[in-house]
Design goal:
With 307 residues, the chain is an alpha+beta fold. It has one domain: Sandwich (Protocatechuate 3,4-Dioxygenase, subunit A). 11% of the residues lie in helices and 21% in strands. The strands form three sheets. The chain has a four-stranded mixed beta sheet, with no helix packed on it. Strand 9 and strand 10 form a beta hairpin. The longest helix is centred in the N-terminal third of the chain and has 9 residues. It is globular. One of its GO terms (molecular function) is oxidoreductase activity, acting on single donors with incorporation of molecular oxygen, incorporation of two atoms of oxygen. This is Protocatechuate dioxygenase. Keywords: Dioxygenase, Oxidoreductase. It comes from Micromonospora endophytica.
């Protein structure tokens, strides 16, 4: 199956987990994972199966932070359940093609975790987040925006007023350090979207190898943060990990020399002066046809016993 198979599937991550009744995630994947068919949940939604991971892709995970508990970080001000179970999250966003493969492992047992839900979200080449374009652009009276002064309510500034941790509350913008991943909330609450855009957001369910695959673009940047992708892992109804992944600066420079990234100038924050960056968050990136392939392992505390 191709990477476009999930495009347009508007199935809430919460409804996927909680609304399929007696089918269950195991039954869901068993029903649709081998014959290329689809399954209809008890809510009436149809979910397409995830593509089977090729053995050559699995081998790329060797040495990519295997079985190490992944550091938790703030979820930032722009997370919400985007109701998109899909592998291709690009929609109309232009940029360098990026295939992203994430393997979820139990940090104690060092084995793959099947049936976990992995969500990712990130900004576009101009630094904008879907569902929060006004806030992330510095609109509504805020100064600056991507490439300028960090806006009020924008990335790297004060969170939007309708999100916990906003103006007058502790937390600040998407610049905080580790906050503990068991709840995923950290110093931010979930955003109420302020527009109908949902580009560069999506979720997938891990296969038997614990792997999900996304097709996206290389993320853009905004003031106060290095280049990154947000990720969240859910097991049953629990958020067991909220983290971010980063990119090698040599590759960032190479990608940003081309359009549409080259039109966005004035980048001020890099891996070495970012408040969240850690070497363990670096993607293992290789050139892949006309784009790039990035892989990373997430080690999660699946039973949430603190180890």
């Amino acid at each position: 199956m191709g990477y476009d198979d999930h495009e347009g599937q508007r199935v809430s991550r919460r409804r996927l987990i909680a609304g399929i009744g007696s089918v269950g995630l195991v039954g869901l994947l068993a029903a649709c994972g081998r014959d290329g068919g689809t399954v209809t949940t008890s809510t009436g939604e149809t979910v397409a199966p995830q593509a089977t991971t090729a053995s050559d892709l699995t081998s790329l995970f060797d040495g990519a932070n295997t079985c190490t508990l992944t550091a938790s970080t703030t979820q930032g001000p722009y997370y919400f359940d985007a109701d998109k179970i899909r592998s291709d999250i690009r929609e109309d966003r232009e940029g360098a093609l990026l295939r992203l493969a994430i393997r979820v492992q139990d940090s104690e047992q060092c084995g793959p975790l099947a049936n976990a839900v992995v969500e990712i979200w990130h900004c576009d080449a101009a630094g904008l987040y879907s569902g929060a374009e006004a806030q992330s652009s510095g609109a509504n009276g805020a100064s600056g925006g991507p490439g300028g002064t960090p806006p009020s309510g924008g990335p790297g500034g004060t969170p939007p007023g309708n999100a916990p941790g906003g103006s007058g509350a502790p937390g600040g913008g998407d610049t905080g350090g580790d906050t503990g991943g068991d709840t995923g909330g950290g110093d931010m609450g979930d955003l109420t979207p302020t527009d109908d855009q949902r580009y560069l957001r999506g979720a997938q369910v891990t296969n038997a190898d614990g792997i999900v695959e996304f097709t996206t673009i290389w993320p853009g940047w905004y003031r106060g943060r290095t280049v990154h992708i947000h990720a969240m892992v859910h097991i049953d109804n629990s958020r067991v990990l909220t983290t971010q992944v980063m990119f090698d600066e040599t590759l960032n420079s190479k990608v940003y020399a081309e359009q549409p990234y080259a039109a966005h100038t004035g980048r001020d924050t890099f891996n070495d002066n970012d408040s969240i960056y850690a070497d363990s968050m670096l993607l293992k990136v290789t050139e892949d046809g006309d784009g790039y392939l990035g892989v990373i392992n997430f080690g999660v505390d699946s039973d949430q016993d603190g180890s």
